[in-house]
Amino acid sequence: MSHIPENTNIPRHVAVIMDGNGRWAKKRLMPRVMGHKRGLDTLEEMCRVCSNLGVAYLTVFAFSTENWRRPEEEVSFLMGLFLSALDKKVKKMHANGLRVKVIGERSHFSQAIQDGIVAAEELTKNNKGLTLTIAADYGGKWDIVQAANQLIREGKTEITQEDLSAKLMLAEAPEPDLFIRTGGETRISNFMLWQMAYAEFYFTDVLWPDFNETEIKKAFASFTQRERRFGRTSEQLPIEQQRP
Ligand code: FPP
Fold first, then answer.
1. How many structural domains comprise the chain?
2. Which pTM was predicted?
3. Domain of 90, in residue numbers
4. Is 194 marked as binding a ligand?
5. Which domain CATH number covers 54?
6. Which atom of ligand 1 lies closest to the CA of 64?
7. Counting beta carbons within 10 angstroms of the beta carbon of residue 158, is it exposed (0 to 12), middle (13 to 18) or buried (19 or more)?
8. Model confidence pLDDT, tens digit, residues 57-91
9. 67 is catalytic
C-alpha cells in the first residue's frame, strides 16, 4: 500500500453498498422500485449526517456492472431516478457545498444521463464539503482493468502498485477506511476491490431505506473500537491506538 493513514475516530472515507431496497418495498407490499426511491432519500440524509460528522468522502454503489441484468422496468426506473437525482438532488447538494462525482463506465448510459453527470461534476467541482461519489455501471474488476489498459496505452511493460493505484477511479481520494453494507448480505460484490484492501468491514441487517443517523453512528462506533494495524503488531502502534 502507498501509505499508512492516521487512525481517527471518524473514518475519512466511507464506502457503502446500499442493499435491501427491494425487500424494504416488498415488506410494505409496494413495488420494488419504491424501495429505490426511498433509498435515494436515505442517501441524501446520509450525505447530511456524514458531512456533519466530518467524513470527507462518501462513496456509494448505486448500480453495478451486473445490475443491467435486472428486469427491464426496474433498470429503466433506476435510470430515471438517476437522471432526476443528477438534476434536483445535485442542486441541493451544491447549495450545501458538496462535491459530486460519478465513477464507472459512462458510455452505456443515455446521452441525457451522461450530460447530467458532466453538468453535476462541473457544477460542484470547486466545492469544499463532503465528496459524494456515485459508482454507476461500476465494478471493481472493471476498474482495475481500465487502469491497467491506461498503463498499456502509455507503453508501460512493467508496473508498480503505485502506477496502478494512480489510474484507478477515485485515485485522488484516500482509500476507504470503512465499508458498510446494509441489507444482511456479507459480500463485497465487486465493489472497490483494490481500494478496500485495508478497509474495516461493517455489515448490518438494517435495510438501506431504514438506515439512518443512529445506524451510521453505530457503524462509526464499531469502527472506532477496531485496532487498525496495517500489517504492524499491536505493540508497534501508538499507545492510544492499542486495544486494551
Ligand atoms: C440494492 O438493493 C440497491 C440497488 C441496486 C440500487 C441502489 C440505488 C439507490 C439507493 C437509489 C439512489 C441512487 C441514485 C444515485 C439514483 P436491492 O434492490 O438489491 O435490494 P434487495 O436485495 O432487497 O432486492
1. 1
2. 0.92
3. 13-138+176-241
4. no
5. 3.40.1180.10
6. 5
7. exposed
8. 999 999 999 999 999 999 999 999 999 999 999 99
9. yes
